[in-house]
Amino acid sequence: MTTIMVPVDGSEASKKAVPFAAQLARAQNGEVLLVRVLQPIALEYQTFETPLDPDVYENLFKSLEEQAEAEVALVRDSLTAQSIKARMMTPRGFPASTLLDVEQTEHADLVVMATHGRTGVARFALGSVADRLVREGSVPVLLIRRDTPAGRSLKSAVVMLDGSGVAERALSVVEQLGGKPLETVTLYQVVANADDRAAAKTYLDAVATRLGRPGLTINTMVDVGNPRQTIDRPAREHDLVILSTHGREGFDRLRHGNVAEAVVREVQAPVLLVRVSGQ
Predict the structure, then answer these.
(1) Which residue, 11, 43, 146, 271, is the most exposed by fewest CB within 10 angstroms?
(2) Residue-range domains of the chain with CATH
């Protein structure tokens, strides 16, 4: 992964993502791209009776821009002091659409951003920015909960599979992170009936064989029940949860509040969502 994009909005919550991006950049020999979107000045600065003069507006915006740039520069400098490649951008615009544009123009390989915990897919800044990056973006999104310890490693992951090719798209990220920094991966499937355990185990073992590589230990686990309820146990035993997101089948029905949203909302571990386009 060459470019790891981290949206920040000036809040301490958004900065929670930075150490995780740094960990990944160090392991991948990549670069952290800090992006602070400068939004239009809030309407409360203006009234219908006394609209701001354009020059006054621009001067005020420039003052806020300089302050924001200084704040992001401190974060960038803290990364470079750790010998981590980092740069920053402070584009003007609205958060979601601007971040999606930056993701494309800067050829980001991964987005790492903080969530606000138990509120569904993350509400970031002034709206569902993380939600839009997951739905409309073209790269995986790693969501970091506000209550996740900053020093947490990303050496072990549980990967949710369901036997479909769509769910297996998450394996491409596992291959990229294998050994850098992932050391242990557990392939995890939930079946509705105990009678299906053997078939699921055979399937997971076959995937493990395909995925095997030096420096990466691969385990398998099969549970019986509802994945929304059973994922909590393996999530507590791993540093990271990885799963694909898509629109109609398998785990993810983000629009209907199904498994992926439940995982983001409920588990304590960071969640890496791999969007499957065209689904």
Answers:
(1) 43
(2) 3-144 (3.40.50.620), 156-275 (3.40.50.620)
